[in-house]
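// run 5 | inverse folding | seed 20
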């Protein structure tokens, strides 16, 4: 019986980006890639980019003392639902972090994060569960990031910002620095559009776009 097996949940776009990071992370620990799998709820092939693809049920059937998985699915509501499934079935959330990501002092990261190459997390930052930080994103000092938050590539989150649960920050967006004791807040379930420049707080469930960012619409948070 293997001691532990590992999986990237999701074999589509983001999952295929996370898988090499997962493989390299395990190899650095002396763990063979044969103990690493994709999980896909509706697999249409046995392998993707050289890695075996299993249904969730088949992953659970692998004889192992422990099962670990990172959820590489961008939709945060789906991510939360799958996290509940993993918890119910005793699968341990797994954080996958690129070897060249920079994590400085006083940073805490919740379980199940996916931290892509060239991400920087500076100092005194608290990040919640199942965070996705895509390529070249950064989070600066004294920020608080909630659960199931997604950063697309190249997000610039400056200091003293609070980002609440399920917010989505689009590619290349810039979030202006807040003030000590008076952070700029991105509300729960808010969407910040691609390339937006956010200069003031964003209400929960709101979509903002443009430079400076303006309200486009609201969503269900």
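// decoded
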């Amino acid at each position: 019986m293997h001691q532990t097996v590992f999986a990237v949940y999701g074999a589509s776009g983001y999952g295929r980006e996370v898988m090499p990071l997962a493989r390299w992370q395990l190899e650095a620990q002396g763990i063979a890639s044969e103990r690493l799998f994709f999980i896909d709820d509706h697999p249409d092939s046995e392998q993707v980019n050289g890695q075996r693809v299993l249904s969730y049920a088949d992953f659970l059937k692998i004889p192992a003392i422990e099962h670990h998985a990172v959820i590489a699915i961008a939709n945060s509501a789906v991510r939360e639902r799958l996290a509940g499934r993993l918890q119910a079935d005793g699968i341990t959330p797994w954080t996958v972090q690129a070897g060249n990501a920079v994590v400085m002092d006083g940073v805490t990261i919740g379980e199940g994060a996916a931290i892509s190459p060239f991400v920087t997390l500076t100092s005194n930052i608290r990040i919640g569960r199942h965070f996705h930080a895509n390529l070249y994103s950064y989070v600066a000092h004294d920020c608080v990031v909630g659960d199931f938050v997604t950063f697309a590539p190249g997000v610039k989150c400056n200091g003293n910002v609070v980002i609440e649960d399920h917010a989505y920050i689009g590619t290349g967006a810039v979030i202006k620095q807040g003030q000590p004791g008076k952070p700029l807040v991105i509300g729960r379930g808010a969407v910040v559009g691609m390339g937006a420049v956010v200069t003031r707080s964003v209400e929960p469930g709101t979509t903002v776009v443009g430079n400076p960012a303006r309200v486009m619409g609201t969503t269900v948070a």
